[in-house]
What we know:
The strands form 3 sheets. Strands 1, 4, 5, 6, 7 and 8 form a 6-stranded mixed beta sheet that branches. Strands 9-10-11-12-13 form a 5-stranded antiparallel beta sheet, with no helix packed on it. Strands 2-3 form a two-stranded antiparallel sheet. Helix 4 crosses helix 6. The model has no long low-confidence stretch (mean pLDDT 85). It has 4 domains: 18-49 and 56-112, no CATH class; 131-147 and 223-306 and 402-442, Nucleotidyltransferase, domain 5, CATH 3.30.420; 152-179 and 187-217; 320-381, no CATH class. With 465 residues, the chain is α+β, with helices and mostly antiparallel strands. It contains 16 helices and 13 strands. The protein has helices at residues 27-36, 40-45, 60-72, 78-87, 89-95, 102-112, 118-129, 157-177, 191-209, 261-276, 292-300, 362-367, 390-400, 403-409, 412-425, 437-461, and strands at 137-146, 154-156, 215-217, 224-228, 231-244, 250-257, 282-284, 305-306, 325-327, 332-334, 340-348, 354-359, 383-386. The two termini are 43 Å apart.
Amino acid sequence: MPVRPHTRDQAWLLPPHLEDLLPPEHPVRFVAAFVDEIDAAGWAELGVEVEALGAPAYHPRLLLSVWCYGFMTGVRSSRRLEAACKESLPYLWLTGLQTPDHNTLWRFYQEHRDRMRMLLKRTVRTAVAAGLLDLALQAVDGSKVGASASVYRLHTAAGLRRLLERTDKAIDELEAQNQTGGEPVPPELPKKLRQKTALREKVREALAQIGEEERVNLTDNDAALLKVKGGYVFGYNAQAVASPVKGGGQFITAAGICEDDRQALMPMLEAAEENLGQGVECSLADAGYHTAENVSLSQSQARTVLMPDRQSKRSEDRFHRDAFSYDEETDTYTCPEGKVLRFQGMNRDSKGRPARRYRATAAECRACPAFGACTKNKRHGRTLDIGPHEVALQTHRSLMATEDAQGTYSLRKQIIEPVFGVIKEQLAGRRFLLRGKRHVESEWNLLATAFNLRVLAKAWAAPTA
């Protein structure tokens, strides 16, 4: 079989041109176009100013483009980006053969990453303007992402005191080793002593903030021990809202970090509406977001939110509270067996919320054929504690029981779950590289931005009809 000649001494017949390095539809070209479209107001929002004086610096467009394309390709380390700018054709094209070092790249990222959250909104508005999104539906969900900290750095107050004792001892030994014997004192502490002194201050601060039963992580105290399938992960609960893309795919319309799904629902839906510039007809969420407060608030804001009730199985019980009919005129409830439950006064429900208590007489309940199935309380009879959101909950249960709602809700997984799979597998987003909730939230927003840029680049490169 003949082979092609191979030599590393090949000369160029004509001078090479940057445009010849990449095909016209390469996604890095879209990144360049996306960043080039940022106007003066956008750069001001990013906090970027180009000064007329001083040594020439790398253009902000170059540095922002490198970081955007790095997140798109799973390269989030400034050192790896430095290497890519020297060795990878897409980066060489993107930078115009300029090679910023990792310090330059890191300083730009460190200074502007919080304000770079605005890029997510910019991608969403771009998709809306292009008519790419199906705004009839959106889905919200969360996924556990590891922190840049070890679970073994979790300490209780007792563990911190033991660590402080060991640190004090190590500092005493290091100070003894660094006695000058009358010689001039060095301008700064030796590295090991400096590290131990900083650790001691950190331990003391942590001890002053936590109780005996609490735990603190000295590396990243904002991260938490989160339960996942098969165990636990030390990290953050990353939230996202996504809408379908016309023709297939998903698009992130909001992203954030929240400790609890139940607290995240309304802020995430409001963030998505802000980014889109309009509302979405129907939102989908799993049972982890279901609370009486969320159901009531969504109805008061005229939002259609489909999410399973945690008590859906209990509501199938013949004697569930939904089977009791309410008479507004007499302010009474009637059970399935015809017994009347009258208002007894205000009380607290099982979660400590104020509730109106209704109760049947003990004699009626004991004589009822349903005694034992409906209630086993011989002293007081059947009791209902009706919270302030009961009407909203019953309305929501009725909605979720319809075939239309169940058919729509079945689309939830295919809208939102692939988003986390792509971010974790293709964008190397299984673990955050930054520490602290504020910085992690910026990193998560940039991962969401990168996800959207991939979708936009694909649409940009698609042949027009």
